[in-house]
Amino acid sequence: MNMNLGEKIKKMRIGQGLTQAELAKRIGTTNRAVSKWENGLSYPSYPNLVRLSHTLGLSQEIYTEGKKQTEKPTGMRSLRELYKAGCGPSSSHTMGPEKICLYAREKYSRADAFSVTLYGSLAKTGMGHGTDRVIRRILGENTAIHPDYETQKVHPNTMEITAWKDNTAVGSVRACSVGGGDIEIEGALQPPIYVYEHTSFARIAAYCRQHAMPLYAYAEEREGRGLTAYLLDMWKTMQSCIRRGLSAEGILPGGLGIERKAKYLYGQHHMDESAQTKENRIVCAYAFAVGEENAAGGRVVTAPTCGAAGVVPAVLYYFREKNGFRDEDIIHAMETGGIIGNLIKTNASISGAECGCQAEIGSACAMAAAALGELLHLTVDQIEYAAEIALEHHLGLTCDPVCGLVQIPCIERNAVAAMRAINAVTLANFLSETRKISLDSVIRTMKETGDDISGRYKETGEGGLPRTGIRKCNEKPLSAYAIFGRKKEICKGLGIFTKKMLKIIELY
Ligand code: SF4
């Protein structure tokens, strides 16, 4: 733990005449947590760093002073904040910025123009993810967007919006898109509302055993009656997304020339196709359908993010068709999967920009495994094991979308993770007695791994698959590839691709 940060928090707090309790109330934590930070016994989480920065005016350098999160979370938020319907392709790059822009437009409704500065991951991959399209749709087509690649902010997805009237700046909004479509706006911070007091699987499982209740009943007890109606709505959105994706054809937007494949996969029939191969093909088709809809900017449900939105619906939709489960069963499965997603979101992260793809696809796989475990009436222990297997085998997975688009490798990753979730449930069904690792410890490991992964592999487009030149991908010539389809020779003839870029394109 970095003592300097604790001392700074204390100095700024006292300078503003706040007691520890008052500061804790403003940022939605306990005075015990503030005391621990000030005494160097723990380190604030990302969201609390953001709130501290906004409340006390601490500069962004606090982020660089240390990254390890040791603070224990004080509760978990509603599943309504995990499953959210919105337009893709990215919960942090389109859904979050959309909310921030709507807030700014409402706050400065008399402004005649806006300008926007993007930082961190939003600057580096925002254009590919469609952040610019969302900003201009809401704030106006002439909005100036400036990506700042250098300045480090507290959160990697930070943006500043300046409102203008008659060429004079009349106000600004600084905000972070903190993952899963959630945002934190400076000066408008609300203390988080925790509906779950338990923040570890061990404690939730103990409570469920003590009260002889399944995991889904625990969620319903905490959240009240409205939860099932809300989740039914989300389930309907997931289903219509799969149906739309299965009937759509053509090239996905963005310039990579990626063809939609869900319909093709779904329609294939091989004479000798085994039941296992058919299951794989159909589950993958469903995951592709959602992934492609998301990439095309369609309406999806974050589960837990847009980029990983295909895993949970693919598994649930397939088993609903295969076993004839009722909507009620599916809702129970979503509740159980949601508890797992919530635990990961609370104790680690569901943001690729923060912890890499293990936090998005890994979390989605764990949610899907737990949800399927619930559908198939596995015990609480078996469900834990299924989720643990699913997350464990995504540890270290980097976030490296080519050209910042949520297409390569994201769409295929959804399909692979959906199959892995089914395998995890099969293993858990037979082997849960022999397991040695708990879900809680894998979640902690995922956070530690994410902290240690280089920023080059966290949705910045600087390492991994896109290393051949994200800037070039955003330039007009790449669209030529989309126009000419797979005729690479023509593109080569135009001399607009580097060798490495062509190699990547050939792979897909
Ligand atoms: S690589 Fe994974 S984390 Fe990164 S955008 Fe794609 S799905 Fe999301």
Describe the structure.
This protein has 508 residues and is α+β, with helices and mostly antiparallel strands. Among the domains are: 3-64, Orthogonal Bundle (434 Repressor (Amino-terminal Domain)); 90-185, 60s Ribosomal Protein L30, Chain: A; 475-507, no CATH class. The protein is built from 24 helices and 7 strands. The strands form 2 sheets. A 5-stranded mixed β-sheet has the order 3-2-4-5-6, with helices on both faces. Helix 10 packs across helix 15, helix 11 packs across helix 13 and helix 13 (275-295) packs across helix 19. The longest helix is centred in the middle third of the chain and has 22 residues, at 226-247. The radius of gyration is 23 Å and the shape is globular. The relative contact order is 0.11. Mean pLDDT is 86; it is low at 469-508.
